[in-house]
Design goal:
homodimer, 38% helix
Chain lengths: 344, 344
């Protein structure tokens, strides 16, 4: 796929087109930027339900970027279907990913993953396009083995409040592999572990953004449970590099691939790093662990290393510093250019 | 719910109505019969894709039975929606349940479980009706613990060829519990283990029907793997009694309930019982175990006993004899009243 001119539906020259569902979200916006940098023409579909308008604004100036507000649980609009023959790649990153957001409308979360994924798979099938699903480490639930390799079947509570997302993603994977097995579409499935960086939504309820925003605002820092649960945090540029490698690698795609950073730290250690970076003196408050919250989560990335030659390269200290700087600017702008309460 | 006259859409007297999706199937047809016997007015929805026409024919003579050919992946027709206020119970038994059948169109299997279940949940919500999902022991996948209690999270391969069914049912459960948690509908979820009896489809590919039909036809008896994998077989009258008890019991419904027979036998022992009953002298042929076929499956029915006071009562020998007799008549009728090759 090489650099092409601006998409002109009226004077369609048949350039290859890349569809990115969920392209206005946190990872999606970085992915769209990287695809544009690679010279691709990007058609971004997003509901903007959980995406930040500023992520989109930064992309919309680009001549090869086009945005269409669309909910993938609904039939694809003519503006997409009419260009089916041009579509070479279909990325599905569409779904609220933080528990408070995806639990707000669990029916919609499930349908986004199942009906939405199926609709995009049908589009890929009709287009002869390659399809990539961003699945999640949540398919492993609260895992009993560490780190989690891709053939671990997981420990998901399919009746609990997180199931709309976890089971929705498992169902989406199942659909993708069925299309792949039947030769209906060439598929790739990435299981994304915790990712952080600029463009995260401050109100998303993720541990990294929560702690940084609380520190920058001088608010008490919240820890759920005893803080000894571990997470592995991947900087967003590493994640996007992994996603691009998976989409474009000459592999058969019939195996899911973990993408994440295997460096494991406790939430308490993360808090200490955020305190050091932001120099906050705010107190720490403890809250009970939410239901079905995984105690430990760490990717086994042997498959990604072997298949894609990929591994994360940004150390946590470096990524956190960049993320803190971005949030400081973001919160400063939000507060009408007033300085953040804590020094950075 | 008491006995009511025949449903007359034109002169609707507002009798309570019971909707049974999948009511022409194996268990569905027995359930419809039991509901009619209890005096309920039954509206059966079925695609007839995997149901036997004769199951339906036996019901259609009943004055309180109404059939509508409908695929629950499609929007509910006016003939259902127009009677929403009358609907008191919604049963979802709709989905092909044998691996060869549900793997024929995995996309449809997934959508039946997710889109179909959601559509019926919305109907129950609009009607203020109680909803029961027939889920499956397949939500436990190839289990590592025996017997399986309801809080076991299962070992399902979400990328394999059985996932369209297993993950579809897990997703359907997730939807049902989300409706229940939000107070949108009163829900019940039964996890049905292997069930057998009259009205099974001879071509369904189940081990009981396969072995009995092969024996009655004098064909070689097929065993997959070494035959040491175990199953627990519940006679259909016991299953229907359990389903009715679960639907009508004054429980809160927010826990799934295993229904099945905990008496565990190997497939090889089942074969020996079928050989004894049918007196076949046909040879046994061994085939490789299909991918992701569970090695062992046995319900822990402590919850059903405690909540519903239910336990199966039909011994396997008795149930198998009745099933063999039914299949002998069925295959005899199929062959134009010619005697079955094996004596019964």
């Amino acid at each position: 796929m090489t650099a092409q001119g601006r998409i002109r539906p009226v004077r369609d020259r048949g350039e290859p087109l890349t569809v990115v569902a969920g392209g206005a979200g946190f990872i999606g916006s970085h992915l769209c930027r990287a695809l544009l940098d690679r010279g691709e023409a990007v058609l971004c579909l997003d509901t903007l339900q959980t995406s930040r308008a500023s992520n989109l604004a930064a992309l919309q100036g680009h001549p090869r970027f086009e945005f269409l507000r669309h909910d993938i649980t609904q039939p694809l609009p003519a503006r997409v279907l009419d260009r089916t023959p041009r579509i070479a790649r279909v990325w599905n990153l569409a779904c609220a990913a933080s528990p408070p957001r995806y639990q707000r409308d669990p029916e919609h979360t499930m349908l986004t993953n199942v009906v939405g994924t199926n609709s995009l798979l049908r589009l890929a099938e009709a287009a002869g396009a390659r399809f990539l699903l961003t699945s999640t480490s949540e398919v492993y639930g609260d895992p009993e083995i560490h780190p989690q390799p891709e053939d671990y079947r997981g420990a998901v509570n399919c009746t609990g409040p997180r199931a709309c997302y976890d089971e929705g993603k498992r169902a989406a994977e199942s659909l993708a592999f069925d299309y792949g097995r039947a030769g209906r579409a060439e598929i790739r499935v990435a299981r994304i572990f915790n990712t952080y960086g600029p463009n995260m939504d401050p109100a998303d309820g993720r541990v990294v953004s929560n702690l940084i925003c609380q520190a920058l605002r001088g608010e008490p820092l919240t820890i759920y449970g005893d803080g000894r649960q571990t997470r592995s945090f991947c900087y967003v540029s590493d994640m996007v590099a992994g996603l691009l490698a998976l989409m474009e690698a000459p592999v058969d795609g019939m195996e899911p691939v973990n993408l994440g950073n295997p460096a494991e730290i406790t939430v308490k250690e993360l808090l200490e790093q955020v305190v050091t970076l932001t120099r906050t003196r705010a107190p720490v408050v403890r809250r009970p662990l939410p239901q079905d919250d995984p105690r430990r989560r760490r990717p086994d990335i042997a498959r990604a290393r072997a298949l894609l030659g990929w591994a994360p390269s940004v150390p946590l200290a470096e990524g956190l510093a960049a993320t803190c700087a971005w949030f400081a600017a973001e919160l400063g702008a939000e507060a009408g250019a007033a300085p953040a309460k804590a020094s950075v």
